[in-house]
Amino acid sequence: MLLSVDRVSKTYAGGRPVLREVSLTLDAGQTLALTGESGSGKSTLLNLIGALDVADAGEIRLGDTAYAGLDDAGRAALRRDRVALVFQQFNLIPSLTAARNLEFHARLAGRRDAAWLDRLAERLGLGDLLSRHPEDLSGGQQQRVAIGRALAVRPALLLADEPTGNLDETASTSVLDLMLELVRESGTALLLVTHSEAIAARLDRRAHLAGGRIA
Amino acid sequence: MNDRFCACLFALMLMLPSAALPQGFAGLGTEAEGFALPDPDYRLRFPEDHGPHPAFRIEWWYVTANLTGPDGSDYGIQWTLFRSALKPGEAEGWASPQIWMGHAAATTTEAHYSAERLARGGIGQAGVTAQPFDAWIDDWRMRGQDFDTLRLRAASDDFAYDLSLQAQGPLVLHGRDGHSVKSADGQASHYYSQPAYAVTGTLSLPDGETQVTGTAWLDREWSSQPLSPDQTGWDWFSLGFEDGTRLMAFRLRGGRGDFTSGTWIEANGRATALPDGAIRLQPLERTGPPNRRIPTTWSLVLPERDLDLRIEAMNPDAWMETSFLYWEGPVRISGSHSGKGYLEMTGYGEDDEG
Amino acid sequence: MIGAACLALWSHWRRHKLQLATLLAGLALATGLWSAVQAINGEARASYDRAAAQLGAGQWPELRPRAGADIPLETYVSLRRTGWRLAPVLEGNLRLAGRSVTVMGVGLLTHPALPAVEAAEGGDGLAPVEVLTPPGRLFADPGLAARLEGNTDLPPVLPSDAVPPGTLLTDIAVAERLLDRPGTLSRLLILEPPPPGLPPLSELAPDLDRVAARGSGDIARLTDSFHLNLTAFGLLSFAVGMFIVHGTVGLSFEQRRGMIRSLRAMGLPLGLLARLMLAELALLALLGGGAGLILGYAVAGALLPDVASSLRGLYGAPVEGTLSLRPGWVLSGLGMALAGTGLASARALWRVAHLPLLAAPGMRAWGGSAAAMRAMVAAGVALILAGALATWLPGGLLGGFLLLGGVLTGAALLLPPLLSVILAMGARMARGPLAQWVWADMRAQLPGLSLALMALLLALAANIGVGTMVSSFRLTFTGWLDQRLASELYVAARDDAQGARMATWLGDRADAVLPSRSVERRHNGAPIFVYGIVDDPTYRDNWPLIAESPGVWDALARGEAVLINEQMARRDDLWPGDTVSVLPDWPLRVAGVYSDYGNPTAQAITALPALLERVPNLPNQRFGIRIAPDQVDDLARDLRADFDLPPGALVDQAALKAQSMAVFDKTFLVTGALNVLTLGVAAFAMLTSLLTLWTQRLPQVAPLWAMGLTRARLARLELLRSLALAALTALAALPLGLVLAWALLAVVNVEAFGWRLPMFLFPLDWLRLFALALLAAGLAALWPARRLSRLPPAGLLKVFSNER
């Protein structure tokens, strides 16, 4: 078992609880779609798993690492080395070229693999786009760079939060196809937040969040 | 004349701006403070006495002329050089205590132009020499080989004249041998005139240059004592009649009554002094705006010479717009005698500057 | 609708009180420094005008001597006698009660009305005889009158508020006696145009030149450069302050984008919205400007006494040290605040006007476009060239300042492209991904920071330039003082008789007695002081010559040559080998030129015996005494006792040097103060820019955080980035500052004061300034960085939130 989420709760200051004793597991190489209404806590759960935020209660483990014992630096190291994130907003670094963005995370993690990068670039169809800056790329192209950047680090777990939410249908389909293909090829586990039934149906498993609980 | 006395001292006060004017003439003081005093026993000597007398407080060279243009128009001109001493005596350069002031005017029946010049003594900007005769301030000048043949020049922004004067008779000494008494208290001056110059020359006015001829009267007077404390002004006449006789007459207006004096001059130049009371002067008509109301028509009666005159200003508005304000202009004479002359009046108007 | 809109707009400031405070502070600083300088200038100019009115200076055209010294009295008289209406003036300087006093003698009879004389005549009934005949009267301001009290050598002194400080107004008769210049005049006022038909002036008085009425007079002309200097500083401060305004206004508009969009979506017309925002800005400008005026008034009040003493020391200009409030000053200060705010906000307003109703919050472009950079380079180069051209074309002091302005603004424009190139190079050379990101990100930040960096560049360059100038001047001045003040003791006698006795007395007791005897004349229409010196090794060893011909001292001793001061050399273009007549009909070869700082007038030195032949009555009251240093105190005591000298009459070398240095330091105190203030304002501008960029920074750093960088590390990088930019800017400021220093020393000083100063470099000062710049940038960046390091994850997560 790669990821285990055990009775995790999260409440933001002054608000109602966003997650209530959520539990979830994911095996290596497995893909899981996390669905739910707007505000159901999907993104919050993803952020907790991505060590971007800290749970109030419950336990998250990635492999043999228990999140509860991590300080800021430990969480940063986890994000750097073992999980990778793809967001709806792409969140590329605007001052760097597509090529630099693509390799950025891998280099941060000290795991730059030129062959793998070339292959990713080729598979993602980035060839001519690599020298461009993000602002010169379309949304679909930016998201392909973002996916490539996440996979380049060869993470154990890829977290994707509505990765096609900002794309039109054609782009959305091709980006999703590519992502699923590459995830399977590289044996990366995927946790994908979506509200689309069609997308959810293409993943190995699905979990539905409603009112802060797994339904 | 005393008028000129005071005029000169007034001028001095006014030269330094906003000097508080003494009430009446009292501020002038009747003391002579080290200045020489007119001496009844002094006998005038010429040409020396044509020159300045720096030991005396005040002195002037005073020319008035009644002139006629080719078309018969009447004109009058005035040329005066005043000397006033702050202290008796003379010194070289700026240290000289002598102050010089020039007044010049030209009068037509329609207009009156006047100008003024000031100068310090000791530096050569103004002065008088007796022989050859030369009196000047800035570019105004009266000079000649002697006192009988003079060239008289003055120029200002709106008028100028250049006249030749030729004496037609002898000098006339006023009072007793030139010692002229000015009040019942005995104030006096040394006073002589050349009343009969024939004049030719040019007069330039804003509308052009005119050839003029006529007669001029030159007064010379110096003294150190001004007026009696009660005297407030004066009226002074120099008149020339068609028969060649002339009359100098003045009235000093005082709180204790008027003091009159004069000199009757026959055509050959023989002079007779006229004592106080011999001449009766009476203003007949006053003209001008309220602050400058002044007698411009006079009656003059001298019974001992069967004289009963009506004297009218040729131009009632002949005010001298100089450091101190006075009236000086040509007059026409009618009545028992006819002729022309000059009239000076002080102590009437209020200075515009207050 | 308007009320609701106002409420919405205002709510922003209620929520961002700090931002409001920053904006108002920026406005207040800009207006404050500008109006402080204006107040100082205004006060000084008012003093000059008052002095000019009190002396009637500059109201009439004048006749001035073309060459040589004075106008002979005869010339005046002969001109008057040809019909010129003139009023004569005799002027000169006199040492009285330990200070130099200007004596202005006028022909009180013919001179146009003078307020002091009028008042005395009116109030005290002063009689003409008292003023016009010996001993005469002196009119002086109450301060001078009090100092001269009991001086029995002088005519009675009448205190008058209508006489400028340091001036004795009197009749010409008294003036020629006091100045010992009988029969001479300095200038002639033309009271009325000469009558037509006179011979031309060139025939009547070939040595006189007609000079048109000048209005405010010599002093205004002399001090123009000084005031231009201050104005330049004020403008620089204002510009730097406006960078702050630009930054804050930009930030507030950026943050109110959403609100603006909502207001417009709810039907508020764009025109009305724009007007409301304009009104809001105007209100803020008036508030900030008002605060600035108070600040400026305080600063001006604090600086004015020193400025006044500088002006008195440098030019003998009559300036009092007290400040009065002028309505024109208030209005112009508020006007500047309004105009500056308008200019600084123009871009933000324009963006509001063009803000699309529906628009995704776009990602900020990674940097200025290449075209914009090229335009900046072109404009920068053009400005620098134009400035350089101005040195020749209009030339003069104006040219000097145009050069400074052109070079400074041009260099400021060149800064962003230059930094961009350097950063791109850095990015190429960087190894690690983080380093690459830092370089690239700095470049991306450049457009947002460039104004603040330009402000920093200008402030640093001005600091280096002015600092170099002042330090160079100070170093030169110190050395020069050592040379000029070679005598151990300086003594002033009461009069010539005492001077003569003193010289004899000193003869057996001192190693050497060096008389200081001079005469004031006019040369080319300006005053010149001609000194006669004895041949003594003191001069040969010490005199600060900047140009000389061989055998200069021997030629001087033989009475065949003259030394002139640098001011005169430069003004009249006279150098060793040329010939000059410092006195009429006495042509002498110029053998040397010496530096003569702090003196606005021309000066010449020749052999004393030769000078005495031509000017026999030179005052003989001041001596330099050479004596072994250990005997100075004894000699001074004996001198004091034997001659019953007042305290000020005897000064030793050290005291004199200290006095001179004190005057010097006071002169540049204002410059130094403005320098520091400008740098402070620049640091503040950097802070506001960084705060402005804050909202744009989060989306840039959040992905890195997500990829595994801690906030603390990111914060450190932020700090490092600001320091790096500041350091690069400081490096760029160094050459610019040196160019500025060169222009100040070699162009502006020569034009303004008549002396050129050698340039010394002070690398330690640069290091200090470099550290100061880093400190300023560090302080400015510290706050945003701290904020980042403490930001809760939720703040960063918002960047990723899908609802953004």
Automatic annotation (TrEMBL), chain A:
Any one cellular-component term (Gene Ontology): plasma membrane
The keyword Aminoacyl-tRNA synthetase belongs to this UniProt entry's keyword annotation: no
Cited Pfam families: ABC_tran
Domain ABC transporter, chain residue ranges per copy: 3-215
InterPro entries assigned to the protein according to its UniProt record, in alphabetical order: AAA+_ATPase (IPR003593), ABC_transporter-like_ATP-bd (IPR003439), ABC_transporter-like_CS (IPR017871), ABC_transpr_LolD-like (IPR015854), MacB-like_ATP-bd (IPR017911), P-loop_NTPase (IPR027417)
Keyword annotations: ATP-binding, Nucleotide-binding, Transport
Single GO molecular function: ATP hydrolysis activity
Family matches, as SUPFAM superfamilies: P-loop containing nucleoside triphosphate hydrolases
PANTHER family: IMPORT ATP-BINDING PROTEIN, TRANSPORTER, PUTATIVE-RELATED
Protein name (record): Putative ABC transport system ATP-binding protein
The species this protein was found in: Cribrihabitans marinus
TrEMBL record, chain B:
Signal peptide annotation: 1-22
Any GO MF annotation of the entry: hydrolase activity
Domain of life: Bacteria
Keywords: Hydrolase, Signal
The keyword Transmembrane helix appears for this protein: no
PANTHER family in the record: BLL1000 PROTEIN, HYDROLASE
Name of the protein in question: Predicted secreted hydrolase
Organism of this sequence: Cribrihabitans marinus
Lineage: Bacteria, Pseudomonadati, Pseudomonadota, Alphaproteobacteria, Rhodobacterales
UniProtKB/TrEMBL annotation, chain C:
UniProt keywords, alphabetically: Cell membrane, Membrane, Transmembrane, Transmembrane helix
Topology of the protein relative to the lipid bilayer: Multi-pass membrane protein
Annotated MacB-like periplasmic core domain residues: 451-611
Compartment(s) of residence: Cell membrane
GO cellular component terms given for this protein: plasma membrane
Membrane-traversing stretches: 230-251, 272-300, 329-350, 371-393, 399-425, 446-466, 668-694, 723-746, 766-785
Domain ABC3 transporter permease C-terminal: 232-356, 675-793
Main subcellular location: membrane
Protein name: Putative ABC transport system permease protein
UniProt source species: Cribrihabitans marinus
